[in-house]
Amino acid sequence: MVGIVGWPAHERGVERLRASYAALPADAPVRLAKRTSNLFRRRDPAGGGTSSAGLDVTGLAGVIEVDAGERTAEVQGMCTYEDVVAATLPHGLVPLVVPQLRTITLGGAVTGLGIESTSFRHGLPHESVLEMDVLTGAGEVVTVKPGDDLFDAFPNSYGSLGYATRLRIELEPVGPTVALRHVRFHDVAELATAVERICAERAWESERVDGLDGVVFAPDEAYLTLARWADEPGETSDWTGATPYFRSLQQRGTDLLTTHDYLWRWDTDWFWCSGAFGLHDPRVRRVWPRRWRRSDVYHRLVGLDARFGITARLDRRRGVRRERVVQDVEVPVDRLAAFVAWFDEAVGMRPVWVCPLRLREPAGPGSARTWPVYPLSPGTTYVNVGFWGTVLLGPDESDGDRNRAVEAEVTRLGGHKSLYSDSYYDEATFASLYSTAHLDRLRAQLDPAGRLPSLYDKAVRRR
To answer: Same structural domain for residues 139 and 11?
Structure first.
């Protein structure tokens, strides 16, 4: 864990980054030399370049300072949310949106997209950034603020415009505990109606709601978890133990967690994907060290499996073929039930995570700020639907068919898809959905030599 690093160390880290960029051969792919990743895109080894060396970001992984009075933090681009929370929570403060997985970085959540249960109030992580420094394709570090072209186009650009080295972010106060209510609904349409009501009132049955997400287990079994920042006495639950957190939604109507455990409630079991490693079996769980019950550990195990082809060889022996369907999509709340019903029929994967979001409302008069590379509509409630696993392919199906179907259905319903995993769009469709013409104009200014790959190259061509 990295503590407060201070400004001199930050400046040294930026200089190392710039020097490593200058040292890369002109034809080398520009990538970050980082140990962990939360991306699920397979990389094309034929992506070009002669060097596998990445940019030196070893000095850019900490918190520079926390200003508890102003409720802001200066954070380096490669700092994980785990380390940010460790620095801010002792002050009774956390970032406005803390993505679910510990090792998501601040820079990654802004150049990509992050989401969590506070997104129905605060939008996405980039909406609480006050200022940031960005290393551009020209090797320059520039400071940008809301309203600047680079700042506004940066979210969802995935490194095609550069990399954030520093971000000044807003913080909000929280209590030491979080009180939860798990409310069951008997169909998704009923859940969607409740989401609209909570987003409008910020409350449920006269009780304030600070965090909102849920799980759909079956067509007639769906839950919303209503979270309230609290300072309440009582015994807190520990879902890092014998039972995964997601099962608690089915087992109890209320719960009390420490704020720390609430923020990382999904990380311990990678939502429910730890089941792929046997961790839903109490016998396996008893011998699996707690320090290894983390999403980054599971991600590395998946990487090793892909590298050595263990699952693929077993599937060939069994005569089966699988397609990985790991995606997060946003659909308007009034089309949530239609999407989930279609998903059950066309893909067939349960459970799925649901998390409402809205573009952040301004403090004063005016409409919410929009973001050109991920064009959500102001005043509209969306619901993120997350589904992560594999499905068996039929004899006439090809790898990618289910993902392509998801992309088409989400577009038909007026939604959007995050780009952290495999994408299959043709170039024209992708351009219309993610404003790549706007990105290309900026890239021509900021990266005249074309050192950085385009968003389509990164997201679809896997370079």
So the answer is: yes
User: Is residue 275 assigned to a domain?
Assistant: no
3-state secondary structure of 55: strand
403 with 313, same domain: the answer is: yes
Which amino acid is residue 62, in one-letter code?
G
For the cut 90, the answer to whether the pLDDT of residue 29 exceeds it is no
Both 187 and 152 in a single domain?
no
Asked, for residue 316, whether it belongs to a domain, the answer is yes
Kindly state whether residues 185 and 166 are assigned to the same domain.
no
Residue 284 covered by a domain? no
Strand partners, 337: none
Q: Examine the domain organization and report whether 160 and 31 are in the same domain.
A: yes
Cβ contact 156:125 at 8 Å: no
80-102 residue pLDDT tens: 999 999 999 999 999 999 999 99
In a domain, 397, yes or no: yes
Q: Are residues 13 and 162 in the same domain?
A: yes
CA distance 255 to 248: 9
Provide mean pLDDT across the span 424-441.
Answer: 95
* Whether residue 65 is found in the same domain as residue 170: yes
Residues 6+ apart with CB under 8 A from 43: 462, 463
In the chain, how many domains are there?
A: 3
According to the model, what pLDDT value does residue 292 have? 94
Those residues with Cβ within 8 angstroms of residue 123's Cβ, 6 or more apart along the chain or in another chain:
97, 357, 358, 359, 360, 368
Q: Which of 345, 352, 294, 360 is CA-nearest to residue 328?
A: 352
End residue of a domain, out of 266, 293, 318 = 266
In the three-class reduction of DSSP (H, G, I as helix; E, B as strand; rest coil), residue 145 is classed as coil
Q: What is the per-residue pLDDT for 381?
A: 98
pLDDT of residue 169: 98
Q: Are residues 15 and 154 in the same domain?
A: yes
The confidence score (pLDDT) of residue 53 equals: 60
Per-residue pLDDT, 46 = 46
Q: What percent of the chain is modeled with pLDDT above 70? A: 96
Q: Give per-residue pLDDT as tens, 199-210.
A: 999 999 999 999
Length of the chain: 463
**What tens digit of pLDDT does each residue of 300-326 get?**
998 898 888 888 888 889 999 999 999
What lies within 8 Å, CB to CB, of 403 at 6+ separation is 323, 325, 327, 422, 423, 424
CA distance 351 to 435: 32
The domain containing residue 348 runs over which residues? 302-425
User: Half-sphere exposure of residue 49, counting CA atoms within 13 Å on the CB side?
Assistant: 19
Distance CA 203, CA 212 (A): 10
